[in-house]
Give the backbone structure.
Amino acid sequence: MAKLGEFELLVLLSILRNGKEPYANRVREELEEAADRSVTRGALYRTLERLRAKGHLEWEMEGSEIPERGGHPTRRLMVTDEGRQAVKRARDVLAVFFDGLDPVLDPKP
């Protein structure tokens, strides 16, 4: 059972959140906007390959009607059942560690 790094977890979460548009460019935009991180294409695609090798992610190639892509195919990203289980395990671990920390993280004046 392969563990997830923080960036891998964020990528999987973004793909799950973008159910109707699970494409790398949308994932990259969301990571930059919501997580306030700069994400290079190279870092994202290396992470996608790593997640695929771990069995957490699959993709299928689709034709593109977007003129900017020049007809080049795009990858439709899909989190596997194993990937969903890895996300649930990470969520459960984080929940344990966050439990009871509200007074420390958000102290009342």
Summary: The chain has a mean pLDDT of 90. The chain has one domain: 6-93. The CA atoms of residues 65 and 92 lie 40 Å apart.
